[in-house]
Specification:
alpha/beta, 12 helices, 3-stranded parallel β-sheet, 271 residues
């Protein structure tokens, strides 16, 4: 991978917050194969680093991520490179890329925030939807975008939309590809918070700080409980919850939180 490719995805770690920035603003952070691979590497690095307590995923410039590089598709004769049959090696590689990015974010033990300075479309929408929380500005827009370029969609967008907004809205968004402005995204629950454009960085930092200062194991278990709910019965969910609840009850963070509650002060959790 060239230095240029490496520079297209950046990692910054400060005080427990890992900020991963898609850094190709001239292409609205559209993702090349090298970018997807680098993003997967940095997500894995942040996940395995005990100093990281929360991850922020954002984009440089005025977009979050426009998805795949359609300009490159055109130059290559289509995403399939002009081939007449599906390349099974390309299928396997794309599956690996998606599992290393959207799949990894979804399965993360640490909270993930998507900070959206502008458009999130196609695969970029998948990255945003996989995060726990999404914060944007009045410039933020979302679109599935796949049908527009005669593709059926990947990076988990259909699966994530079905769970976040329900099957009826998911079908509308996938089939008709409306361009959702910030208000529409907020109304559907796709944006957690909308702030003025010049306040996005500060508001994202504030949200990240709140999570980074929180009880790490409790937040990880909350995330696991929520992730597993769609495949569990109520009885199964409660049994899983009890085990994790009891585990967090043994932590120093829980003891500190209970003491802080009694003493009417903010808790200070372990770092």
């Amino acid at each position: 991978m060239s230095q240029t490719d490496t520079d297209h995805v950046l990692l910054d770690l400060a005080d427990g917050v890992a900020t991963i920035t898609l850094n190709r603003p001239d292409r609205r952070n559209a993702m090349s194969t090298a970018m997807i691979e680098r993003l997967g590497e940095l997500l894995e690095q942040a996940e395995s680093d005990p100093a990281v307590r929360v991850v922020v995923l954002t984009g440089a410039g005025r977009a979050f991520c426009a998805g795949g590089d359609v300009q490159q598709f055109d130059e290559d004769g289509g995403e399939g490179g002009g081939a007449s049959e599906v390349d099974e090696e390309a299928v396997a590689a794309q599956i690996r890329h998606q599992e290393a990015t959207v799949g990894r974010i979804h399965a993360y033990a640490k909270p993930v925030i998507a900070s959206l300075p502008g458009a999130a479309a196609g695969a970029g929408l998948g990255l945003a939807l996989a995060a726990d929380l999404r914060i944007g500005t009045p410039r933020t827009v979302m679109a599935t975008a796949f049908a527009t370029v005669a593709l059926s969609g990947d990076f988990g967008v259909a699966w994530l939309l079905d769970r976040l907004v329900g099957p009826a809205h998911a079908r509308e968004l996938m089939l008709l590809n409306p361009r959702l402005d910030a208000q529409a995204c907020s109304d559907l629950g796709l944006l957690t918070q909308v702030v003025p454009e010049d306040e996005l960085e500060a508001a994202t930092a504030q949200l990240a700080r709140r999570l980074a200062d929180g009880p790490a194991l409790a937040l990880a278990h909350i995330r696991s409980n929520l992730r597993e709910v769609p495949t569990q019965t109520l009885t199964e969910a409660m049994r899983t919850e009890v085990r994790r609840h009891k585990e967090t009850g043994l932590t120093a963070d829980h003891v500190e939180a209970a003491r802080a509650f009694v003493e009417k002060r903010p808790p200070v959790f372990g770092r």
